[in-house]
Amino acid sequence: MESFEELFRRLTEAPTPRERLEAAERLAELPDSRVAPALAKALADPDPAVRARVEALLGEFGRRDRGGHLAALLAEAERVAQALAAEAQRLRGEVPEEPRARPVDPMPPPEGYSGPCVLVRLTGDAMDLKRVSRLVAPAVGAPPFEVAREVQTTKGFLARGLAAEAAGRLVAQLAELGVVAAAVPADALPPALKPARVREAGFDARGLRAQLLPSGEESIAWHDVALVVAARVELDLEPDALEESWSPLTRPLPPRSRGREREPTYDYQIELFVRAPDRRLRLVTYELDFHAMQRRPSRFGKVARLAREIVRHADRRCLSAGLRRLADHDEENWHDLTFTSPVGYEDYVTWLRLLLSLGVPLPR
């Protein structure tokens, strides 16, 4: 049986109407919520017979809504409408308006749950870290400075291993301090995903074309991208390793010499989290091949251009604050998104993925 990806490729790229009709029929039989948005793209097919059959299949979904197809189709239509409106504003020289995030309410533990919880922030709003750490510290049996360091390192985690009752009390007490928090069962955290490294990346209206190491080329549709994260991370390299003349095609980067104190080396990292199946693609920007670019901008300019392409095509609800900063060519304000520890970065990514799973907008 052909996969969704194979059938979608046939629907959009097959040379004959007969092949495209067959792909549409077989797509409609799949129990996959991506089917209706995929069929909707065929409403622009040049052949009237294909358009008519696709319209009939979509009408069938509207009547029966098998597997949530109609909801997925409406979500895709909303995403396309937002993208078109933003593009129209850019063409007029205006700054695209961001949709207003709905207010977020505190989330106590699930009713009847008595297991261990993690306590997380639900927004990126400013807070009085000293008061928050003094409030949380007795519950975790740690001094306030350790609680404050945890928050500063991970950006979103306030405490771990709390009893559900204690976590519920802290959610209410934090709300009185103006901090919107959630007590989440420890086993509800998103599972860790091993990153696949991207050697080359290209973007168009359909999605991302990536050359993965070591598996090879892969295409990913934009509606399958669940989250895009960007941050500034410390690298185990010599400070001058990322000089402009360095090329990934000519020589490897020199690792940091041991036994000597040196200034840390930082670079920008972009990661895409993809659905169906769940995957993690890591664009370590010093490893990317930028030689296809006709012009030769600065290293940061090259990375910013990648970010702008993602912002242009992806659903804005899945874009992290770091990616927006890269797209805005902001090279200065990274103090809050600079990670010296891989553990802190992984916790930050887990926090963002958790927010999306809870239906909470990402911090901006």
What's the quick description here?
With 364 residues, the chain is α+β, with helices and mostly antiparallel strands.
Instruction: Give helix % range.
Output: 25-40%
Number of helices: 11
N-to-C span: 42 Å
Radius of gyration: 23 Å
Describe the global form: globular
Structural class: alpha+beta
How many strands, which pairing sense, and closed or not: the largest β-sheet?
A: 7 strands, mixed
- Low-pLDDT parts are 237-257, 290-296
Number of strands: 10
The overall number of domains is 3
Describe the structure.
- The relative contact order is 0.11.
- Helix content is 39%, strand content 19%.
- The chain is an alpha+beta fold.
- The protein folds into three domains: 4-88, Leucine-rich Repeat Variant, CATH 1.25.10; 116-188, Ribosomal Protein L30, Chain: A (2-Layer Sandwich), CATH 3.30.1390; 196-251 and 262-357, no CATH class.
- The chain has helices at residues 4-13, 17-28, 35-41, 48-64, 69-91, 129-140, 144-154, 164-176, 299-313, 321-327, 342-357, and strands at residues 116-121, 157-163, 181-185, 196-203, 207-213, 216-221, 225-235, 265-274, 279-284, 338-339.
- It starts with a helix and ends in a 7-residue tail after the last helix.
- A seven-stranded mixed sheet has the order 6-5-4-9-8-7-10.
- α1 (4-13) packs parallel to α3.
